[in-house]
User: Fold these one by one.
Assistant:
Number 1:
Amino acid sequence: MPTKKQRPAPSLRARLLGDRLRALREDRGLTLKYVSGYLGVDFVDVKDIEHGTRSAHHAQIVALLDLYSVYEQGERHFAIGLARDAFRLSAWEGDFDAPELPVSTLDSLWLESLAQRIRSYGAILVPDLLRTSGYAEEVVPRECGPQASESEVVWRTRALERRQREAFDRRPAVTVQAVIPEVTLLRPVWRADAVWRTQLDHLAKAGDSVRVLPTRAGYLPGMDGSFTVFDLPQKYVPTVACSAYLGGVAVHEGDAGQWYADAFDRLWDAALPPAESAQLITDLSHQ
């Protein structure tokens, strides 16, 4: 007997938009029936928008923001952008050469593009935004796995370079913090010593952005897997974290996102100060 096809889970972007619109409506004391009448749509349409399962047109979002008396330009701009990106992230899905990207991966890329602070812990490998091109060329094919085509590997390598440019060229500047275990810096993932030394030199020059967790450090929750925490400037957007999962990305929000944020702060405090971290990295590169 055929089973009913399940709807794919809504993106984080769609859920954030829906949650915000519902909070604004409830704060104004308005009912779904009133809002649907105001927009001239069915009651279920508004309900689905708030649940993140239906897209909203630009004019509808503008009308809702007016109805809810949201006139602060920053919040209006963010909400309109969320509506635009909720079901299709054109910045990445519009790339003809891009492979099909899972919703969670697109959510991670979206978070990275808007975050004012990015905190990464690299349990196994150097975090993406701090990789040199040589290191990335060695690592990306292995991360993609043997099933990946050569064109996908090339695209993902170039996509990483694009992500790094967009993150570090952003104004106002994004704050990037990374904790890297000492053992990660010793892990051989390259075929030439020059790649290793170039990567270490790059990290040594990162200043206050990088701290090394020495091998003598005791166990701390969170240190057994890589993850990244994104802090967006909008106060009503909760801290969100992404971790590697089955070759893809798992998105953690709410209490789970805060757990990863707290875990990163503990790892950051347990790691060597920036100057000592830079010296340790430099010593390793001279071995």
Number 2:
Amino acid sequence: MKTRRSWPVLSAVAVVMLVATALFLPTGWAASPSMSSCRATHVVQLNQTASSIAVMYGITLADLVTANNLADPNHIYVGQRLCIPGSGTVAPTNGDLGICVSGQVIDKSHKGLAGLRVMAAMEGNPGLVAETDANGLFNFKDLLPGLWTFRVEVPDSWEAVTPAEFPVELAYGHGSCYPVRFKLNPLGCLIATKVDANGYPVQNWKIKAAGLVDPEGLTDPTGTVRFDGLIPGDYVVSEEVPYPWSALTPSSVKVAVHAAMADDDCARVEFKNELRPTTCVTGFKVDDQHRG
């Protein structure tokens, strides 16, 4: 009899506990949906919103909210698993038919530029690097959805016609690779050095270049002056030889400047001069009486 009378007491305690649990659930809590009825499951990534996820899968925000019992679609968190309902665009498996980016780096005449590095990065993921082929083409595949930044590495002497870096929001269901294109202006560089007869650098020596542009400058402590951003073509490089120096090499040289990917591609000129010894003569003027 004692055992039988204890059941109502235990049942009452259980009811109180269940009610208390319901009362103290955190605001915005929603029951987990049954994933068996989902055509896909999405794991929330950094910087994603409920709206952007809905767009990725070709469904409405309302459908996503309903399928996941979301109390507030503005409050989802990284790592949260969401049910993707309906019969919209099925997200491909990343690593098989994942998101891809196909691009090209071109010059101002729309000719592809080879051998340039293009970087792709998304916050929280390791960066990727691709190199342009002979036609300036590059591609990235098996990318995760989210905000990616693409950047082309511009050689020192070149200039970017389009921005060298820009963001792209990637999503499943795009239908084809996202296009990314950079336009650069390949320019050249010229490095001139000035040394004395013993090969030691000479500073503050004026050197000029004349061609499609006409830069000039003074040599630094290493005897070097560098001109970047030169339009490819022929240039005449000359030095000014002040007294009491004399030239040991021609003081004017014609060189061809090409688009330079690195310092080794810069046109180079070396001028060599020697400092001539100087003497002086002193004297005085006298009259016929040998007076000054």
Number 3:
Amino acid sequence: LLELPADEQLAVSTDTLVAGVHFPAAADPFLLAQRALGVSVSDLAAMGASPIGFTLALTLPGAEAAWLQAFAGGLDRMAQDCAVRLIGGDTSRGPLSLTLTVFGRVPHGLALTRAGARVGDLLCVGGELGDGAGALALVLGQRQAPAEIAEPLLARYWSPRPQLALGQALRGKATAALDISDGLLADCGHIAAASGVALLIEQARLPLSPALLALLGASGARNCALSGGDDYLLAFTLPAEHLAGLQAQGWPVHVVGRVEAGAGVQLLDQQGQGITPQARGYQHFGSDGD
């Protein structure tokens, strides 16, 4: 039973991760557990919520003690980092998959949602984009890189850090928010649709890490940032008057565009002209070219 004070609301989100779709079937169980919980708690960050607990439904092809011990270790590590407790769940036999439901609390009326972006707002992100997507070729063994390049990218993929504190700092300031899981272009499309506005993204303002640039070059890094997904950083719309204060407090707020009247998401070059992106992001039931 979960009981909240009358002045708080319950935030709930569920994620399912399937072997061969969301992670390699032979993934290290410690890292897999960290990633699974991290990406789930990121949904709470996107709502500005404080974590309460989570449930886990784990389907396994077999019960191997060493695998389960490593998985439990990774799960505990991320749970401690996020200050969230396992409060229930289930296990069953079958192809490897994980379903996590996370629960959080947020002051009544202050939850961040995808709706609410207003014309004139800034479009912002909470850090350097594309590292998780850039790491995928390393995860799959399709590419190799020196440790100083590979390690920070792999860390972003396997151990995403939910921006819980940033989400809470944005309560009462951001007009709309979500976490970037399917790519900046695709996820900004959700804000645009829910808010009834157009989002303009300026390609030259995308924050990119040195490691990603070293691995893929400028063009490849931009593609990962725009449509690669697996960032689990916050994207949000913000009235301009709040920007300086947040940055002065040390929050990693990067302006990447703006909100205008209209619909959809448009990518702009340095001259302000529209660009047709190579891809818009991951589509759960779309074609490869979507």
Number 4:
Amino acid sequence: QLKQAYYRLSYSYAARDVLERNRELLRKLLRITEARYSVGKAAQQDVFKTQTQLSILEIKLVDLQREHNAREAEISSLLNRVPGSSLGRPRDMQPQELAPSIEELYASASRNAPMLLRDQKMIQRAQIAMNMARKEYYPDYTVSFGYFNQGSMPSMYQARVDFKLPAYFWRKQRAGLTEQAQSLAESRHTYAATTQSLHFRIKDDYLMATTSSQLMKLYGHTVVPQATLALESSLASYETGAVDFLSVLTNYIAVVEYEMNYYEELQNFYLALSRLEGMTAVPLIQ
């Protein structure tokens, strides 16, 4: 839980950087549009559209600030720190590879997952209880020996063997054994169900991590650089009147969206790794 709060806090910083950087670019576009409007080369609606995009950015920044404050409060609570204390900026998340295979994660979870260890203890307890119920079929016996010192008279010795036979085992003992056998079967079914659920969660988070890793590479190496070049080219052409305002605005919105998507996938990648660590006890985050 602490790691997930930490990575969400790191995402709020990265996303805010993206929006603030692109806000300056949007202000530049607004100045160019106002200048073109003042000489009759741009429509008034272009100015209004740019101002609307600036307002939308401000809304997103306010929402990110709320998320930022909430994650700081969560971390302070988990660490038992004074409420409102500043935590500083976390280390920026960086792309990394997911080294272990899913089979290795399954094997580690079988050995170390707390929920499976709990169910294994329940099975052991049920087995012990059933073994104790079986012993109720055996007769109880007591062997005792006594010595009596009678002074001037000869000493006395006494030996005794007592047997307690389970005469009604078909009613009492058999019912007790049946109950413990059913409890053992239930514990084994619970263990199997927990194993299946755990494997599903591991598979789900593993797929999320690998998918997010692939998307990060696409956004970081291809989509974002290409969209940025398209925006810079269209903005330079817009100043000379070679392209229309809508093309520039569309390219700008695309750049912001793709950069935000990149950091969302980076956050999803680290959140999935932190959950996998909790389920498998394998250190995955470098």
